[in-house]
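user: Please supply your own:

assistant:
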Amino acid sequence: MKYSKIIILALVISALLGACQEQKEHTAAAVRDRDSVSMMISYGVNTLISDSGVIKYRIVTERWEVNTVRNPSRWIFEKGLFFEQFDEKFHVQSYIQCDTAYYYDQKRLWELRNRVSVLTKDGVRFTSQQLFWDESKHELYSNVYSKLVTPERTLEGAYFRSDERMTKYYVSNSRGSFEKTDIAGSGDTITTASDTVKANIRPQAKPIRRMQPNK
């Protein structure tokens, strides 16, 4: 009995000491942005997309990541992106390519970076280091140096904005070649000038017949 009481007392003390000891928390390291798990990562993507049974598009990229954890959520093409559109005879109508691309799916906004090149089905060529495509507003814009080449003219400027088909565009601080009809007041600039400008123009002198001296 004596030994049994000692054993029971020892177990009680041991339990009490264990309860009083500081408990250790087992926690994992904090999750950072770079550790955020993407919903999908695909490598070596080369896929055709059909519309109404007709192949119309191709997407080529080395790495396609879909990340819904980041704010805002986005598709990431850090290894480049090439997108082209076909006609019914599988001829290339237009294409877009760049070194890096991000698509913010909630904003419906594309951001293309580095060696951006665009060809439209109307033969318009665009090159820049940056291009945004706002699908909600149906417009394209760039805040850096851009070059636009059409079948009729070449434009270069520090700011670019256009509709998504590049049929109506605006280039600020532009320089380049223009057609005569592109210049405001096409035709004779004197005829189309304002009255204030015309008033400062020296009128052409009327010829005066020289009188012959009497012999």
